[in-house]
Specification:
The protein is of the alpha+beta class and about 400 residues long. It has nine helices and 15 strands. It has two domains: about 10-160, 3-Layer(aba) Sandwich (Creatine Amidinohydrolase, Chain A, domain 1), CATH 3.40.350.10; about 165-385, Creatine Amidinohydrolase (Alpha-Beta Complex). It has helices at about 10-25, 45-50, 110-120, 135-145, 155-160, 165-190, 195-210, 275-295, 305-315, and strands spanning about 30-35, 70-80, 85, 100-105, 125-130, 150-155, 215-225, 230, 250-260, 260-270, 330-335, 335-340, 355-365, 365-375, 380-385. It has a six-stranded mixed β-sheet with strand order 4-3-2-1-5-6, with helices on both faces.
Length: about 400
């Protein structure tokens, strides 16, 4: 697949203007948008969404007088007046920063304070977007510098703007999904008797590197089910187990990563050697539940209804709805976007949302995992994932 063109430069000021209008409607004087990069992923999505900027510099502790808030970037966005991007690093190409006023500095906190003063955001209610990336040290210095400001959580503003994708974003996500599918297939093809989890992941990483992609995470495990079940898995890294795969094992991987900032998120399962009837039953249960959930997708349907359809199918097949993640997926873009496919989320689906629909099943010591990426269309959905489905 051919790599798509860049997101048009005119999209970024349009996004910022929508955010300004939403801030004004919420009674805010403006927004302070925060993100954190570091050369791989982290929580960069809001700044990249509004300015096309990503900082490559890794996080390091502050050394006052030398540098502060490395790996962070901030967008000062008053409801009227000059927009300012404060960044700790200059990208390779100036056009990557899709905003006129930008400050590149080592002392990020001092420059943010000066920029807030320049934008006259020194009192009243100012919304924080990306609050989970704002460290205590940065917040405390902002609070001390602006005692007349009331800082208000405003992540909902970016969430609403980001949930429906533009044409250019859809093509970015289509390509990211294609790259992720090729990495997934390379991993599943490598997952044979005698291979370790690390060797399996290496095959996927090679594909990602060739296409400008990066690995965000890979939930991976293997083992045997039945009366004396075994499981092989590690936490850090998730592919660090030294044991080799053996004939008769089950194997699953859920791989996520990014290409040009846009995420992919896929999952598949397979038997090592010839699959048993019980293995295949556990592999097919999440696949059929995901397909039932996807069949419900179309504009006007709620995220809750999609999740319910998946759960009901899973239970119809005789499996319990359990696990650390009690959902059937989420939106995807420059990170995990709205909506969440959970029964408590009543977000109405709209055309041009992009969703990852997923489910894992654990039963009698067996694990099955399955995930697809889809685009919501006028009458239903288009599947962006094209990785091989059945490996048995």
């Amino acid at each position: 697949m051919k790599k798509p063109a860049a997101v048009p430069a005119n999209e970024f000021p349009e996004r910022r203007e929508r955010a300004r209008k939403a801030a004004k409607a919420a009674g805010l004087a403006g927004l302070l948008v925060c993100s954190r990069g570091g050369g791989t992923t982290d929580r960069y999505g809001d700044i990249k969404y509004f300015t096309n900027f990503y900082t490559r510099f890794p996080y390091i502790p502050d050394v006052p007088g030398e540098w502060t808030a490395r790996a962070h970037a901030f967008l000062i966005l008053p409801i009227e007046g000059e927009e300012i991007l404060v960044a700790d690093d200059k990208p390779k190409r100036d056009e990557e920063m899709a905003i006129d006023e930008r400050i590149v500095t080592g002392d990020v906190i001092a420059s943010v304070i000066a920029s807030l003063k320049k934008a006259e955001l020194t009192e009243g209610r100012v919304g924080i977007v990306g609050a989970d990336t704002l460290s205590w040290s940065v917040h405390s210095q902002l609070a001390a510098a602006f005692p007349e400001v009331t800082w208000v959580p405003a992540d909902e503003i970016a969430k609403e703007i980001r949930k429906v994708k533009s044409k250019a974003e859809i093509e970015k996500l289509r390509y990211a999904s294609w790259v992720g599918c090729r990495a997934t297939e390379a991993m599943l093809e490598t997952a044979v008797a005698g291979k370790t989890h690390g060797e399996v992941v290496a095959a996927g990483m090679e594909v990602l590197a060739k296409h400008g992609g990066i690995l965000y995470n890979n939930f991976m495990s293997s083992g045997r089910g039945g009366n004396n079940p075994t499981s092989v898995a590690t936490s850090f890294p998730t592919w660090g187990s030294p044991e080799v795969l053996e004939d008769g094992d089950w194997f699953h991987c859920g791989i996520s990563g990014a290409v040009d900032g846009y995420y992919f998120d896929h999952a598949r399962s397979k038997p090592i050697g010839n699959g048993t009837a019980e293995q295949i039953r556990v592999f097919e249960a999440p696949m059929l539940a995901v397909q039932a959930a996807m069949a419900k997708v179309k504009p006007g349907v709620t995220a809750s209804e999609v999740a319910r359809a998946g759960r009901e199918k899973l239970e119809e097949l005789g499996f319990e709805f359990e696990g650390a993640f009690k959902g059937f997926g989420h939106g995807v873009g420059l990170g995990w976007d709205a909506p969440w496919l959970i029964e408590s989320d009543h977000t109405v689906l709209e055309k041009d949302m992009v969703l990852c629909v997923e489910r894992s099943v654990r039963h009698m010591g067996y694990v099955g995992d399955f995930e697809e990426t889809i685009l919501v269309t006028e009458n239903g959905y288009e599947k962006l994932t094209d990785a091989r489905v059945k490996w048995w």
